[in-house]
Amino acid sequence: MTNDAILAKYGELGRDIREILITEDQIRQKVLELGERISQDYADKNPVLVGVLKGVLFLMADLLRVITIPSEVDFLAVASYSAEARQRGMVRLIKDLEIPIDGRHVLFVEDVIDTGLTLGYLLRSLRDRNPASLEVCVLFNKPAHRLIDIPLKYKGFDLPDRFVVGYGLDYNEKYRNLPFIGVLKPDVLKGKT
Ligand SMILES: O=P(O)(O)OC[C@H]1O[C@H](OP(=O)(O)OP(=O)(O)O)[C@H](O)[C@@H]1O
Ligand SMILES: Nc1nc2[nH]cnc2c(=O)[nH]1
């Protein structure tokens, strides 16, 4: 299917998209590769995959389906603060893990890393609980605005400095269900770059 045909299939959502940056097939292939590596690296370790709601839902579900070893999953949720508040390290946990992670091999799964502030805070919080190991798997890495250096053991795509939607990523809670990564048209995207 051409990109135009894919966008047409999504009707009003598709009409808001200026460009598809990463296709559904490219995402599927990359998630498969990540799942294969994780399955090899964590064989016999029964890892706990941890994600932050809500953007990670799609990645987490797809990744779990291609991981071939026993593994567990749990989620955190954080309150959204302004960029200024987050820069001061303010991330408020509104849902904590249900699985105790002391002594466990934890893989933090993130859909997108931009400034790194959210992940930086959450990794510190998880490290305090003494996991046996703590690594990060990110599908979409946006290095342009990174404020904190975070080692990424598993990385999918480097993205340009543009606000993107789809595959879990939203704009005002919309567009999460698009199966690709796209850039919104300028008239839709007010105040974002
Ligand atoms: O590296 P940072 O600049 O901290 O940005 C990354 C965060 O942004 C996204 O969440 P978002 O705030 O969009 O919430 P959502 O997942 O509920 O859409 C993503 O899931 C990360 O948690
Ligand atoms: N939807 C969305 N959320 C983000 N959080 C950090 N970067 C992005 C982005 O490009 N799109």
UniProtKB/TrEMBL annotation:
<dbReference type="GO" id="GO:0004422">
    <property type="term" value="F:hypoxanthine phosphoribosyltransferase activity"/>
</dbReference>
<dbReference type="GO" id="GO:0006178">
    <property type="term" value="P:guanine salvage"/>
</dbReference>
<dbReference type="Pfam" id="PF00156">
    <property type="entry name" value="Pribosyltran"/>
</dbReference>
<feature type="domain" description="Phosphoribosyltransferase">
    <location>
        <begin position="26"/>
        <end position="171"/>
    </location>
</feature>
<dbReference type="InterPro" id="IPR050408">
    <property type="entry name" value="HGPRT"/>
</dbReference>
<keyword id="KW-0328">Glycosyltransferase</keyword>
<dbReference type="GO" id="GO:0052657">
    <property type="term" value="F:guanine phosphoribosyltransferase activity"/>
</dbReference>
<dbReference type="GO" id="GO:0000166">
    <property type="term" value="F:nucleotide binding"/>
</dbReference>
<dbReference type="GO" id="GO:0006166">
    <property type="term" value="P:purine ribonucleoside salvage"/>
</dbReference>
<keyword id="KW-0460">Magnesium</keyword>
<keyword id="KW-0660">Purine salvage</keyword>
<comment type="similarity">
    <text>Belongs to the purine/pyrimidine phosphoribosyltransferase family.</text>
</comment>
<dbReference type="GO" id="GO:0032263">
    <property type="term" value="P:GMP salvage"/>
</dbReference>
<protein>
    <recommendedName>
        <fullName>Hypoxanthine phosphoribosyltransferase</fullName>
        <ecNumber>2.4.2.8</ecNumber>
    </recommendedName>
</protein>
<keyword id="KW-0547">Nucleotide-binding</keyword>
<dbReference type="InterPro" id="IPR000836">
    <property type="entry name" value="PRTase_dom"/>
</dbReference>
<dbReference type="InterPro" id="IPR005904">
    <property type="entry name" value="Hxn_phspho_trans"/>
</dbReference>
<keyword id="KW-0479">Metal-binding</keyword>
<dbReference type="GO" id="GO:0032264">
    <property type="term" value="P:IMP salvage"/>
</dbReference>
<dbReference type="GO" id="GO:0005829">
    <property type="term" value="C:cytosol"/>
</dbReference>
<dbReference type="GO" id="GO:0000287">
    <property type="term" value="F:magnesium ion binding"/>
</dbReference>
<dbReference type="InterPro" id="IPR029057">
    <property type="entry name" value="PRTase-like"/>
</dbReference>
<dbReference type="GO" id="GO:0046100">
    <property type="term" value="P:hypoxanthine metabolic process"/>
</dbReference>
<keyword id="KW-0808">Transferase</keyword>
<keyword id="KW-0963">Cytoplasm</keyword>
<comment type="pathway">
    <text>Purine metabolism; IMP biosynthesis via salvage pathway; IMP from hypoxanthine: step 1/1.</text>
</comment>
<comment type="pathway">
    <text>Purine metabolism; GMP biosynthesis via salvage pathway; GMP from guanine: step 1/1.</text>
</comment>
